[in-house]
Design goal:
Blueprint (H helix, E strand, L loop, with lengths): L7 E4 L2 E4 H4 L6 E5 L8 E4 L2 E11 L7 E8 L5 E7 L3 E5 L2 E10 L4 E5 L5 E4 L1 H4 L11 E7 L2 E6 L3 E8 L13 E6 L4 E5 L7 E5 L4 E5 L3
Antiparallel strand pairs: 1-2, 3-8, 4-5, 4-8, 5-6, 6-7, 9-10, 9-12, 10-11, 12-13, 14-15, 14-17, 15-16, 17-18
């Protein structure tokens, strides 16, 4: 049995306890295609992938196989692969924890574990484009491979305050036209002409599309 010792380091003037991130099992194990399920993380071609969709096929008298669609957790690319029925796969046990976004420290995005209040700074290449919708206090889920953060998932919808909005053209508010408005995170959203500075709007973080004005 491997004993895990507590290691304390300093990150952004805060104590960070690695032992708290090591709750649970983070070891890879060999399985077979019978273990396939949506959401399973496997190591394929030396990189981590999450199973998005799988299908068991038996084409006539040919040998059965599994057609698998999976997402590369490093670069986000979707790929498909065919596995022989009963073929070994490298299953990786992951842990997903709930965090709260605090601030950007100049080199990364700082999140706080909602359970033990430890803080971790995650680089922008892991957070990705969804960083443009991150505002202080928003809850996220972070997936870890051992000590290494792999993905950050923010809510599908967020409410953001409009900080800049050009005036709409009088008489055009009912035509369905849009205009670019700037929100509190610094990003720009195409919103209806009636949206004004100070309004709070709901945005789809997956597409960047305006959904509605939030009633005050």
């Amino acid at each position: 049995m491997v004993k895990i010792h507590s290691i304390l380091i300093r990150i952004n003037q805060k104590s960070f306890n690695f032992e708290n991130l090591l709750k649970g099992v983070f070891f890879a194990k060999m399985g077979t295609t019978s273990d396939l399920r949506n959401g399973l993380v496997i190591k394929y071609n030396g990189e981590l992938h999450i199973i998005v969709k799988w299908e068991h096929r038996t084409p006539g008298n040919l040998r059965a196989f599994y057609q698998v669609k999976m997402k590369n957790l490093k670069n986000g690319k979707m790929i498909e692969n065919r596995f022989r029925s009963g073929e070994e796969i490298d299953i990786v046990r992951m842990e997903t924890r709930n965090f709260q976004y605090l601030y950007h420290d100049g080199s990364g995005y700082v999140f706080m574990d909602k359970e033990n209040y430890d803080q971790v700074s995650i680089p922008g290449d892991i957070v990705g484009e969804q960083a443009q919708y991150l505002k202080e206090g928003v809850s996220v889920q972070i997936m870890f491979d051992g000590l290494k953060p792999i993905t950050v998932e923010i809510p599908p919808h967020v409410e953001l305050k409009v900080t800049e909005a050009p005036p709409g053209v009088k008489g055009d508010t009912a035509t369905g036209g849009t205009k670019p408005v700037k929100v509190e995170t610094g990003t720009t959203i195409n919103a209806p002409l009636f949206i004004e500075e100070g309004d709070v709007i709901k945005v789809d973080t997956r597409t960047g599309i305006y959904l509605e004005r939030v009633k005050k």
